[in-house]
Amino acid sequence: MVSIFLWTYAMSEDPNDVTIHANRCLCWLHLCHGINALIDAYTCYCLRPKWPISYLRLGSAFSCLKNYENACMAFLQGLSLDPANREIQKALQKTMEQKTNESPVTGTSIRCYRVG
């Protein structure tokens, strides 16, 4: 929680610094606070929509919330901006595995398609 406090303080000094939002988002993710992570991830996206890390954070927040379809779409969008990004590739693979290994609740499946 100390790191979140420090990133929040840094944000008050420079609210448009996308890396501050991205780093605080990562802290929220480590604490499994998906909604707070999603808020910071969406702010990253709004501030810098062409930055692959914005999509990594969005996808990770959606995955934390078990919204695998949106997570997958965010990761694929990030890969369309940076196809060689190993971190996004791994996050997409992990999300697809989580969806596969999760007990079926609705009986629906997810399919991920590469964009671009």
CATH class: Mainly Alpha
What are the segments in which pLDDT stays under 50 over at least 5 consecutive residues? 106-116
Instruction: Look at the structure and give the mean pLDDT.
Output: 90
The shape, in one word, is globular
Structure description:
- The protein is mainly alpha-helical and 116 residues long.
- Helices cover 71% and strands 0% of the residues.
- It contains six helices and no strands.
- The longest helix is centred in the last third of the chain and has 16 residues, at 86-101.
- It is globular, with a radius of gyration of 14 Å.
- The chain starts with a helix and ends in a 15-residue tail after the last helix.
- Residues 106-116 have low confidence and may be disordered.
- This is STI1-like protein.
- TPR repeats lie at residues 52-85.
